[in-house]
UniProtKB/TrEMBL annotation:
It comes from Bradyrhizobium canariense. This is Lactoylglutathione lyase. Signal peptide: none annotated. Pfam families: Glyoxalase. GO terms for molecular function: lyase activity. The keyword Transcription does not apply.
Length: 151
């Protein structure tokens, strides 16, 4: 009787965003303060250290081809997912939203008290990718910039 191989360990390592103008998107994420790595890739692809999974930027049409998905029609708004920028305090949420908008983001929703006891607002990057900026109960941000979840 053959033994089943062990299941692989699940991990989320990279989030790749399809972008319309890679040069503009690189400038935006640089301005937000994310640390770009592997700059030898030039404007083919950009990788950012986020303190957790890597954030990658790749031209939208090329990403669609790579994933064998249609390039058209492109959704112009909500795509069924958001990115999150967890903060340590409500004041940090407000500051991040103001900062992101000053760097070219569009404010989608002003910060507000949530029904689960948190504080949250949303901005969109230049390609419309929505980011939630949030303080949430049970989710802490450590000195290491990593998110730590309560048990």
């Amino acid at each position: 009787m053959s033994k089943e191989p062990p299941a692989p360990i699940p991990r989320l390592t990279v989030i790749t965003l399809g972008v319309n103008d890679i040069r503009a998107s690189i400038a935006f994420y640089d301005a937000l303060g994310f640390s770009r790595r592997l700059k030898v890739t030039g404007e083919t692809v950009a990788f950012y250290d986020t303190g957790g999974p890597v954030l990658a930027l790749f031209p939208w049409d090329q990403l669609a081809v790579d994933a064998k998905l249609p390039d058209h029609p492109r959704p112009s708004t909500f795509r069924g997912m958001t990115l999150a920028w967890n903060c340590r305090a409500r004041e940090e949420v407000d500051a991040v939203l103001v900062f992101a908008v000053s760097k070219g983001a569009a404010l989608l929703k002003a910060a507000h008290e949530t029904d689960y006891g948190g504080y949250s607002g949303y901005f969109a990057d230049p390609d419309g990718h929505p980011w939630e900026v949030v303080v949430a109960p049970g989710i802490d941000v450590g000195e290491d910039r990593r998110v730590h979840l309560a048990e």
